Amino acid sequence: ARRGNLVVFSSVAGARVRRANYVYGSAKAGLDGFASGLSDALHGSGVRLLIVRPGFVIGRMTRGMEPAPLSSTPAQVAAATARALAAGRRTVWVPRSLRPLFFCLRMMPQALWRRMPR
Predict the structure, then answer these.
(1) Which among 12, 14, 48 is positioned nearest to 30, based on CA atoms?
(2) What does DSSP assign to residue 117?
């Protein structure tokens, strides 16, 4: 029997693509779409897929950048991922408080979204 877990590391940047980083954000949005479809295709196979959506992660890739509010460390992302796997979740936002924030941002009208600071 095939059983297991597949973890896809995405980003909150894919939830609502910003003009300041639209290439990165659109790549993550595409990854989210692919992972969501793959998760549906794997349904019932014994293989589960978890999408991890961290915000700003303090690490080598972001060295020299000003940390964003609600930043996390690689250890925090890893711990949240392990908890989500153990709970059988399909998606985890790191930190958790980003989920309702990005729900609201996704609902924001385009005219207002374009007025947001870069």
Answers:
(1) 14
(2) -
Q: 11 exposed, middle or buried (CB, 10 Å; 0-12, 13-18, 19+)?
A: buried
Residue positions counted in the chain: 118
User: What digits encode the pLDDT tens for the residues 18-41?
Assistant: 888 889 999 999 999 999 999 999
CA 116, 104, 22, 94 dihedral sign is positive
Instruction: Give the catalytic positions in this structure.
Output: 24
The Cα 12–Cα 22 span in angstroms is: 12
How many domains does the chain contain in total? 1
Beta strands across the sheet bearing 4-9: 4-9, 47-54, 91-94
- Token pair listed for 4: 């297991």
What is the pTM for the complete model shown? 0.83
CATH number at residue 45: 3.40.50.720
Residue 21 lies in a domain: yes
Beta strands in 10-90 (DSSP E): 47-54
Structure tokens given for 2: 């095939």
